[in-house]
Amino acid sequence: MRAYRIGEISRRTRVKIETIRYYERVGVMPVPDRSEGGSRIYNLEQLKRLSFIKRSRELGFSLDDIRRLLSLADGGHSCGEVKALTQRHLTGVREKIADLQRLEKTLDMISSRCSGDDAPECPVIDALFEAGPPG
Amino acid sequence: MRAYRIGEISRRTRVKIETIRYYERVGVMPVPDRSEGGSRIYNLEQLKRLSFIKRSRELGFSLDDIRRLLSLADGGHSCGEVKALTQRHLTGVREKIADLQRLEKTLDMISSRCSGDDAPECPVIDALFEAGPPG
DNA sequence: GCTAGAACCTGTAGTAGCTACAGATACAAG
DNA sequence: CTTGTATCTGTAGCTACTACAGGTTCTAGC
């Protein structure tokens, strides 16, 4: 099976070398073989695993989630668990969107009260001194 | 002027005591007076400043932004600069929303291909092994 | 005045997910 | 055999907190 050095899998996946080593340290990437001199030597499967991690990160999964996904992928996964994990993540994403949209609305409202010229009093500053939502 | 101990401004602003001390350390809260024994003693202005920080954080401003906002608020601020800062932040928020919406779409699509039963093969896992967007 | 208990103090380490060094060694090409 | 690139380990930094440990201060009741 073909061998890859860390620089090569870094280029292929667009994951920084330091990040790959970090993934190894925290246990999402497996410990690879080493050359005689001590350089990391990866195989095709490990390269694929790294793209899996990359893609999952792009989709906003946490490294904890990714560890779970990988162990499901390894161990003759049940589709149900994978879907559940994905759905939980999707719910989180939707909540974040809703939060940010509330934020956007408020910021927009506050900002629109402001002329933007060099007036000495600023409604934005005033608004920030007001209390936020109760709770 | 009325004096407040740290516990009281913490209760009033719902900012944790440790966080208030952290704000002092990183220079967004001013160094307060101390009692003879060494307890921090705040005045009304400092209490107001803390609610300003709290509100700004709720609106997603970074501590760096907040430092700038506060110095604008202190120094006979020009409304224009405040508005510019707010607009930049708003743009950032909108970008984040757009990113998350793309994410949501992709996740939803991937997830919908999955039956969710205990099938041995899982389209979600397969999808995660595929490359993401080019770039 | 004394004591119990709440409130406060400092300092440090941990969280997520990297990123950025420094200083040393390995490897490939000529 | 040399030169230059690639890789190595280990540590520290980033944001914005949070959570201790182990000690001191303050306040209320007696």
In CATH, the architecture of the largest domain in chain A is: Orthogonal Bundle
**Order of strands across the widest beta sheet of chain A?**
1-3-2
Q: Fraction of residues of chain A in helices?
A: 55-70%
Number of helices of chain A: 6
Task: Give the rounded overall mean pLDDT of chain A.
Answer: 92
Shape of chain A: elongated
Structurally, the number of domains of chain A stands at 2
The succession of helices and strands of chain A, N to C, reads EHHEEHHHH
Structural class from helices and strands of chain A? mainly alpha
Compute the separation of the termini of chain A in Å. Answer: 59 Å
Q: If you consult CATH, what is the topology of the largest domain in chain A?
A: Multidrug-efflux Transporter Regulator, Chain: A, Domain 2
The largest contact between protein chains, plus residue counts on each side, is: A-B, 57 and 56 residues
Please compute the radius of gyration of chain A using only Cα atoms: 23 Å
* Largest sheet properties of chain A: 3 strands, antiparallel
Please count the beta strands of chain A (DSSP E, at least 2 residues each).
Answer: 3
Oligomeric state of the chains in view: homodimer
Which range does the strand content of chain A fall in? 5-15%
Poorly predicted regions of chain A are none
Text of the CATH class of the largest domain in chain A: Mainly Alpha
